[in-house]
Amino acid sequence: MNYLLDTHTFLWAIADSGKLPKPAREIIVSPENEIYISAVTFWEIGIKSRLGKLDLGNLAPEQLVSIAEEMEFQTISLTAEEASTYSRLKETHHKDPFDRMLVWQAIQRNFVIISKDRKFAKFEPFGLKISWD
Fold first, then answer.
1. Least confident among 32-36, 40-44, 92-96
2. Own/partner pairs, 101-108, CB within 8 angstroms, 24+ separation
3. Model pLDDT for residues 72-84, shown as the tens digit of each residue
């Protein structure tokens, strides 16, 4: 199965954080699953790191790409089609543009998103599939 990691999920996975529930950890480490990280996630991390809203310790945001590759996560770009059709995502309660684009990518690519964000449930009527615990 194909899974897209939300930004916090990606960061917790690479930090081997105890914040990931067992079902999410099992999905991420299972060789049967393909795990994807969006360029949108790297963009969000870069912006939040630069603004001082995210502390990566002694890591630079650009190092996360090679860490993702070492963990055998696949990286995906934001396509022009995904960007141009984003306006079709009609749910308006969740305002975070990074989250909304990750949701849109998951819907468009038929990926399951791994996220603890409870607000994502509002996107399920639009085709989003969510996994967490």
1. 92-96
2. 101/38, 101/40, 102/4, 102/6, 102/7, 102/38, 102/40, 102/41, 103/128, 105/4, 105/38, 105/40, 105/76, 105/78, 106/4, 108/81, 108/82
3. 999 999 999 999 9
H helices present in 34-109, as ranges: 39-50, 63-70, 80-85, 97-109
110 conformational bin, left if phi > 0, alpha if psi -120 to 50, beta if neither: left
pLDDT in tens, 91-124: 777 778 899 999 999 999 999 999 999 999 999 9
Location of structure tokens 């975070």: 96
Structural domains present in the chain: 2-131 (3.40.50.1010)
Q: What's the CA gap between 99 and 51, in Å, rounded?
A: 18
